[in-house]
Design a protein that fits this description.
Layout: H1 2-26, E1 36-37, E2 40-47, E3 54-60, E4 63-68, E5 75-79, E6 86-91, E7 98-104, E8 107-112, E9 117-122, E10 128-133, E11 141-143, E12 148-151, E13 156-160, E14 167-172, E15 174-175, E16 178-179, E17 183-189, E18 192-197, E19 202-206, E20 213-218, H2 222-225, E21 237-243, E22 248-253, E23 258-264
Parallel strand pairs: 1-20
Antiparallel strand pairs: 2-23, 3-4, 4-5, 5-6, 7-8, 8-9, 9-10, 11-12, 12-13, 13-14, 15-16, 17-18, 18-19, 19-20, 21-22, 22-23
Length: about 260
C-alpha cells in the first residue's frame, strides 16, 4: 500500500500544476491599446463667424451647414466657406439651446441641449416639419446612412431610428484608460466615428462596432500656432465636417475666428 501511494504522488502533483497553469492562462487578457496619434496637414484656413457658438458642422452637396448654440443666439445656417458668412439661416427660439446637426434623407436634424426636443427641417427651405421628444441631453449627432448617432455628454453613443426616434443600439466608447465621457460633436466618416471631446483639444476616432478609440488628432494650440486672434469669448474646439470629394475635414471651435481644412497624413 505504501508503494502504491508513492507512485501516485507525482501524478497528483503534475495534475495540480496543470490546473494552475490553465487557470492562469484563462485569466490573462490583452491590454487595451493606446489610441494611435494621427497626423494631419492644414490645407487652408477660412474665416469663421466669431458670434457662432458652434455645435454642429456638416458638409453636404458642396455646401457647409452649421448649427450654433446658447439661448437667444442659437441658429441654423448655410455658410459660404470662403467668407464665413451665412447665405441662409433661421433663428431658434430663445427658449432653446441649439446643439448638434446632421443631414439625412433631405432633412436636417437639430438637437437641443436640455429641452428634450429634436427639430427636423426641410433641407431646401429650413422649414420645420417635425419635432421629436428626446429624454436625455442633446450634444452631437451624425448618421451612418440608416441610423442617427447621438451623443449626450457621457460615454455612450446611441443609434436611433430616424423615423421613430427609438434607440436601436447603445455603444459605450472607451480607450486604454476606461470609458471616455464628454463626447460631443460627431461625424461618421468611412466606417469610423470622429468625435470632439468637450473641453479637450483633440478629436478621437472610434470603432462603431466595438466602441474602442483607435486614434487621436491633437489640435493643442492650433489658433496660436496659426496666428489667429484670441479674445475672452474664444471657446473650445468643436465642429467636424467631412468633404468626401476632396477627402478633407473641416474643423473649428465655439466662437473661433477660423475654420480649418485639414487632411489626415
Amino acid at each position: 500500500m505504501k508503494k502504491i501511494a508513492l507512485l501516485l504522488l507525482p501524478v497528483l502533483m503534475l495534475a495540480c500544476n496543470d490546473t494552475k497553469e490553465e487557470s492562469t492562462s484563462e485569466n490573462t487578457s490583452a491590454a487595451i491599446p493606446t489610441p494611435a496619434n494621427m497626423g494631419y496637414t492644414i490645407v487652408k484656413i477660412y474665416p469663421h463667424d466669431v458670434s457662432s457658438y458652434t455645435q454642429g458642422l456638416i458638409w453636404f452637396n458642396n455646401t457647409l451647414y452649421e448649427g450654433s448654440g446658447l439661448n437667444g443666439e442659437s441658429r441654423l445656417m448655410k455658410i459660404d466657406l470662403e467668407t464665413g458668412k451665412s447665405t441662409q439661416k433661421i433663428d431658434i427660439s430663445k427658449d432653446y439651446f441649439g446643439e448638434g446637426i446632421t443631414i439625412l434623407n433631405d432633412k436636417i436634424y437639430q438637437l437641443t441641449y436640455t429641452e428634450h426636443k429634436v427639430f427636423v427641417y426641410d433641407l431646401a427651405t429650413f422649414k420645420k416639419i417635425k419635432e421629436f421628444d428626446w429624454n436625455m441631453q442633446g450634444w452631437g449627432i451624425t448618421h451612418n446612412g440608416k441610423q442617427l448617432l447621438i451623443s449626450t455628454g457621457d460615454s455612450n453613443i446611441y443609434f436611433v431610428n430616424p423615423e421613430t426616434f427609438a434607440i436601436e443600439k447603445t455603444l459605450g466608447v472607451y480607450d486604454n484608460n476606461g470609458y471616455l465621457s464628454n463626447l460631443n460633436e460627431l461625424e461618421f466618416v468611412n466606417d469610423s466615428i470622429f468625435a470632439n471631446v468637450y473641453l479637450k483639444d483633440y478629436i478621437v476616432k472610434i470603432n462603431p462596432e466595438t466602441g474602442l478609440v483607435e486614434g487621436r488628432l491633437d489640435f493643442t494650440g492650433l489658433l496660436q500656432k496659426t496666428g489667429q486672434p484670441i479674445t475672452a469669448d474664444t471657446d473650445v474646439l468643436n465642429g467636424i465636417a467631412f468633404n468626401p470629394t476632396t477627402n478633407s475635414f473641416y474643423i473649428t471651435g465655439k466662437k473661433w475666428p477660423a475654420l480649418y481644412e485639414i487632411k489626415l497624413n
